[in-house]
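ADF-H domain-containing protein structure dump, as promised
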Amino acid sequence: MTIAQNPEIAAAYEDVRNDKSETNWLSLEYVSDKKDELKLAKSGSGGLTEFVKELKPDQAAFGYIRVPISNDELSQRTKFVLVCWCGPQVKVMRKAKLGIHKSEVKKVLQAFSIEVMGSDVHDLDEKDIVLQLRKAGGKYHLNCNES
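structure tokens r here:
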């Protein structure tokens, strides 16, 4: 089953996008070291901090996180971040295929403001990501599938 055919992943994506849901992140991991199939690994309500705690140095994974942004108490906006994680101990063949898999992930996790690559937990510092989201301002990336 491809990621696009996985109803569990699609439902988790919609749950993260729903402002009325407490769920604000999801992670996709590989079924095994030998298979290129992705599965919904986890989701939660602890934001980027909780997502980062789940990452392992020998793992490649993808994350989708809802991040509230506010310039003051009256202006609250919601932004989304796509994370591509490739830990420092990931095997060479997995690293080589990550770009191909990322394009498949973007077909399902379509709407996001920024994309962040991480190979160290410090690459996913919340303050830095919020700053990037503010710089992105009104920009909104919607991955359009071209025919």
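The CA atoms of residues 6 and 102 lie 16 Å apart.
lmk if u need the other ones
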